[in-house]
Design a protein that fits this description.
The complex is a heterodimer of chains A (597) and B (131). Chain A is of the alpha/beta class. In chain A, helix 2 packs across helix 3 (75-85), helix 6 packs across helix 13 (323-335) and helix 10 crosses helix 13 (323-335). Chain B has one domain (29-122): Glutaredoxin. In chain B, 42% of the residues lie in helices and 16% in strands. A five-stranded mixed sheet of chain B has the order 2-1-3-4-5. In chain B, strand 3 and strand 4 form a beta hairpin. The model of chain B has no long low-confidence stretch (mean pLDDT 82). Classes of the chains: A alpha/beta (597), B alpha+beta (131).
Chain lengths: 597, 131
């Protein structure tokens, strides 16, 4: 192996690739080649660093320098300054917004200080397309250890002791699930990885598959050994082309190295993995729908029991686990159940990955121990709300979750606490909202998603969600009546109680939790025709302030529907009957004379 | 055809590959390993700091000492280039001057391995360069 003096790690995740990180890699390589440094400096394209807000990210080792928002054209300066002269390029360092100081080492950034990376341990550290970097970081050693010296029951015991619960949303104890599948006798069993990540704003599964595919493959093989399966299937959505590509590379390399296939490590254990593509239907994240979709049938759920662990893919016992759950397993085997159980809260062990999105300064992917508070996540790691606005709510658990408010900020995040607070963990999406967000519209947004994604098999979900959406539309259009609120609540409860699968059972949550926490906004919309956040167009009015208007006619000329009248140098008037509320007049006015009410 | 046949194969491969990743592993915990900073300003480079740095990187690896070798700007001791600063975990950094390959060898063998001081120390008249 060559003696490299520097490793330049460049984020090769989907987010940073969208801002030309691939070109940056080739520029860096070309620059090093010109200066004949290519034998001393290695450029590595890694998985996601998580700090997507300031991508593309470049990290230089060994001095652990963290550069943000690096353009492809910055390659020359990084090489000539940092590599050749040993001077950090200050303008590319992260600027601490509080102290207004450059931070060179990522360990000193608030974003990373409180994080603990278990599932994401290799993301942003290794080259996901090189199995050797994974092996150097203990890849496949857990599989080797258990094949050599631990019985399947022993492994299941370790998982049970570790307290690992499913990271896909349900939080079912993984060890117990595996035990069920192990006890069911069958000539063939299946290990399935659920990579059908469908929550709006969630991208942890994608990042793990893009940044560390081998951990997932290894954990699936471990599962195969435990339950007695020789076949693994990864159900991944076709919208994740990069994750699919990296998985294919990883599977190919694992086969080539003899870590998948027949007689793995000479212990007589066979296991192989194939990919199955989903078309991106949200309902296919539900395990029975997912299995039907893999069988080539329509992606619709069926009643449980029988659970997949009894009768799943092709009616054989099947384990369906989420990507993040799998990524935790090799570490648990290597470091022990006690180590894992020492992290987290009483009933939720380990760490959880969250995808921060919405009106938050540090949009990105983070991993924290269970029990970290929402305040720590949003204000310390997430850097608070964009543009100094006021925090209003955070939606956890995606379209199935609920919104939490200021009063919930100090609860320690774990599976049970979130449910008690009226939301849920879900896959770990967190959408942060500020004072400009209307909560009725927010609920409407999620309902629109559920209506679109409902598979249509059961009536409560198919028809009920549509009705909910219609009532919400009515309210945001300013046509709501008081009875609507009673109807909403009743209908929500009926849909929750009578839907067939998780999608319908949870789809009313955004409405119920916003009604619980922001009841006055619903009332305001209906009784006062007012949207506090000035978000619902139908409830707003553009008016011209006579005192400020100098009659320059700029607004009248900008108005696309000629709703503004008035003679020159005289205050103008907006005809509300014609106005389409496009806001063009407000943009044009230089005297702040157009006001929004 | 299969590259890894047995668990021993896997473990050997991991041990061999480990070194290639050491730099990144150590960079994550710089305080737990020996850190060497080589002053690489114009004066340093002109006096052979690059050779000194190469020597440290290859020799430390050969002698299986986990260390983090980085470069830094001018330390101000232009009369004694190449200058290096060595930090052994838990100890105050020590600056050495005129570090040619021979001196470097002595530093590795005596100071880094055994903690004995060698000639060429530049007295600390001010705080370490990081402070």
């Amino acid at each position: 192996m060559a003696d490299y003096k520097y490793d330049i790690l460049v984020c090769g995740g989907t987010g940073c690739r969208a801002t030309e990180s691939e070109l940056l890699v080739s520029n860096l390589k070309a620059e090093l080649k010109t200066l004949q440094l290519d034998s001393e400096v290695q450029v590595v394209s890694t998985g996601c660093f998580g700090f997507c807000e300031k991508g593309p990210i470049v990290k230089i080792m060994p001095d652990n320098t963290f550069y943000t928002q690096v353009n492809a054209s910055d390659a020359a300066e990084i090489v000539s300054e940092h590599i050749v002269k040993g001077r950090k390029v200050n303008r590319l360092l992260y600027l601490d917004p509080v102290e207004n100081k450059n931070v060179a080492d990522s360990k000193n950034m608030d974003f990373y200080k409180k994080q603990l990376r278990v599932a994401l341990r290799n993301c942003g550290f290794i080259n996901p397309e090189n199995i050797e970097e994974s092996i150097a970081r203990d890849g496949y050693s857990a599989l080797g250890t258990i094949l050599q010296s631990i019985t399947p029951e022993g492994v299941i015991d370790i998982l049970k002791k570790s307290g690992l619960r499913g990271r896909g949303g349900g939080g079912f104890p993984t060890g117990i699930k595996w035990e069920m599948a192990r006890k069911n006798n069958a000539d063939q069993k299946y290990v399935v990885c659920n990579a059908d990540e469908g929550d709006p704003g969630a991208f942890m599964d994608r990042s793990i598959l893009e940044g560390d595919p081998h951990s997932v493959l290894e954990a699936m093989a471990i599962c195969g050994y435990c339950i007695g399966a020789t076949k693994g299937l990864i159900y991944i959505r076709a919208e994740y082309p990069l994750a699919i590509k990296r998985l294919k590379v990883a599977i190919g390399q694992a086969r080539e190295y003899g870590l998948l296939g027949k007689n793995i490590l000479d212990f007589g254990f066979d296991f192989d993995v194939e990919l199955r593509y989903g078309a991106g239907a949200f309902v296919c994240g539900e395990e029975t729908s997912l299995i039907h979709s893999m069988e080539g049938k329509r992606g619709e759920p069926t009643v449980k029991p029988p659970f997949p662990a009894e009768s799943g893919f092709m009616n054989k016992p099947t384990i369906v686990n989420n990507v993040e759950t799998y990524a935790n397993i090799p570490v648990i085997i290597n470091k022990g159940a006690d180590w894992f159980a020492s992290i987290g809260t009483e009933k939720s062990k380990g760490t959880k990955v969250f995808a921060l999105a919405g009106k938050i300064n540090n949009v990105g992917l983070i991993e924290v121990p269970m029990g970290t508070t929402l305040r720590e996540v949003i204000f310390e790691i997430g850097g608070g709300i964009k543009n100094g606005k006021k925090f209003k709510a955070v939606q956890t658990g995606g379209p199935s979750g609920g919104c939490l408010t200021e009063k919930h900020l100090d609860i320690p995040i774990d599976f049970d606490n979130l449910i008690a607070a009226g939301s849920m963990m879900g896959s770990g999406g967190m959408i942060v909202m500020d004072e400009d967000d209307c909560m009725v519209s927010m609920a409407k947004f999620f309902l629109e998603f559920t209506v679109e994604e409902s598979c249509g098999k059961c009536a409560p979900c198919r028809i009920g969600n549509k009705r909910l959406f219609e009532i919400l539309t009515k309210i945001t259009d300013g046509k709501g009546v008081k009875q609507d609120l009673t109807d909403l609540r009743n209908l929500c409860n009926v849909i929750k109680d009578t839907s067939l699968c998780g999608l319908g059972q949870t789809s009313p949550n955004p409405i119920l939790s916003t009604m619980e926490n922001f009841w006055h906004e619903y009332v305001d919309h209906i009784e006062n025709h007012k949207c506090e956040a000035a978000h619902c167009r139908a409830l707003m009015k553009y008016e011209i302030d006579e005192e400020n208007c100098i009659g320059c006619t700029a607004c009248a000329r900008a108005c696309p529907v000629a709703a503004i009248t008035g003679s020159k140098k005289m205050p103008h008037i907006i005809n509300q009957a014609i106005c389409i509320k496009c806001g063009a007049c407000m943009e044009k006015c230089k005297f702040n004379a157009v006001i929004l009410k | 055809m299969t590259k890894i046949r047995t668990l021993d194969d896997l473990r050997n491969l991991r041990t061999n590959l480990r070194q290639g990743m050491d730099m990144r592993e150590n960079a994550d915990n710089p305080d737990s390993v020996v850190q060497i900073k080589v002053a690489m300003a114009t004066c340093g480079i002109a006096s052979g700091a690059k050779k000194t740095m190469d020597f440290f990187v290859t020799e430390l690896r050969k002698r299986q000492i986990t260390a983090l070798v980085t470069q830094t700007g001018c330390m101000g001791y232009c009369y004694a280039e190449p200058t290096i600063e060595v930090t052994i975990p838990g100890k105050t950094p020590v600056v050495f001057g005129n570090v040619t390959e021979n001196v470097a060898d002595e530093i590795i063998e005596k100071y880094i391995k055994k903690g004995e001081l060698v000639d060429g120390i530049i007295p600390q008249t001010f705080n370490p360069i990081d402070k």
